[in-house]
Design brief:
Blueprint (H helix, E strand, L loop, with lengths): L2 H8 L8 H21 L5 H23 L7 H22 L6 H14 L7
């Protein structure tokens, strides 16, 4: 826990963050790590493995959430997000096998981040 987050927890007047905001921040963090790890993959392959694994774990959590019966997202959106999870797992394996780049994974994350910010457009 960082100093600032500890202060936020301790202050009752601190605003609570929305789930969308938390999801956005997590996607932003893992996307940045994917990009950074990809850039240094030849000198630090374990960092790429960690970043790709963390991205898959994040998508696994999102998929679990959209699969819950009480999830209030529209069914079509839930299905698309679950498909993206499946694609992410498949493509991540190709990245780790040195058969693909992380570009598609970061593009997917960025698209979801735009949606979380209400910038989805065309839906």
């Amino acid at each position: 826990m960082t100093f600032h987050s500890a202060i936020s927890y301790a202050r009752p007047e601190a605003p609570t963050r929305s789930q969308r905001s938390v999801e956005y921040d997590l996607l932003a963090q893992v996307t940045q790590r994917l990009r950074s790890a990809w850039a240094s993959r030849t000198t630090d392959f374990p960092a790429l493995v960690r970043a790709v694994t963390d991205n898959m774990q994040l998508w696994s959590t999102l998929a679990s959430d959209v699969a819950l019966p009480g999830n209030t997202l529209p069914a079509a959106l839930r299905a698309r997000l679950f498909y993206l999870y499946e694609f992410t797992v498949h493509h991540s394996r190709a990245v780790l096998d040195d058969k693909a780049s992380v570009e598609v994974l970061t593009d997917i994350n960025m698209a979801v981040m735009r949606g979380l910010r209400g910038e989805g457009g065309g839906r």
